[in-house]
Amino acid sequence: MEPRINLMTNEFGAKFSKRFAAAGLMIHQSTLPRSTQELVSLRTSQINGCGFCVDLHTKEAAAVGETAVRINLVAAWRESSVFTDAERAALALAEEGTRLADAHHGVSDETWAEVREHYDDNQIAALVSLIALVNAANRTGVITRMKGGSYEPGMFDAVAS
User: Fold this and answer.
1) Whose CB has fewer CB within 10 Å in the chain, the N or C terminal residue?
2) How many other CB atoms are there within 10 angstroms of residue 158's CB atom?
3) What is the CA radius of gyration of the chain?
4) How many Cα neighbours within 13 Å face the side chain of 27?
């Protein structure tokens, strides 16, 4: 399966990607811990089956100091002992916020209460924005058939500026 289009070399795609990357940069600069951002992004990408995004967030997580054990256990975070209560709340929000069509309730009140317990309003805003942004990126990657394996950490840093 070959990629259908390279949005980075397409005129409209390149302009959109620059704005998309700027939104990502804003989230990266928030007070939401970068490690949490990458774990949430990785889990969201796993759920959506975006090979490129799983590659990207696996490598970015390692680049910000995540261990191989924690990266490898993200897919089974509920059955793992290596995540903090705050990270577990963020991962639950990511799953429920990604699987909106799979549940009649969307994000549960219980999950929301857990998130409120561990994060301030600005961090929650960043977390919600991150989940929405990664879901959009995943859909772009899946629709265009972007392949995993070629990402290098920091590869898109220049796009946002």
Assistant:
1) N
2) 9
3) 15
4) 24
CATH number of the domain encompassing residue 84: 1.20.1290.10
What gap in Å lies between CA 130 and CA 47, rounded to an integer?
A: 15
Q: How many domains does the chain have?
A: 1
Please give the Cα distance from 108 to 126 (Å, whole number): 19
Residues 6+ apart with CB under 8 A from 130: 27, 32, 37, 40, 41
Calculate helix-pair angle for 121-144, 11-28, nearest 10 degrees. Answer: 150
For the whole prediction, is pTM greater than 0.90? yes
Tell me the pLDDT tens digit for each residue of 33-92: 999 999 999 999 999 999 999 999 999 999 999 999 999 999 999 999 999 999 999 999
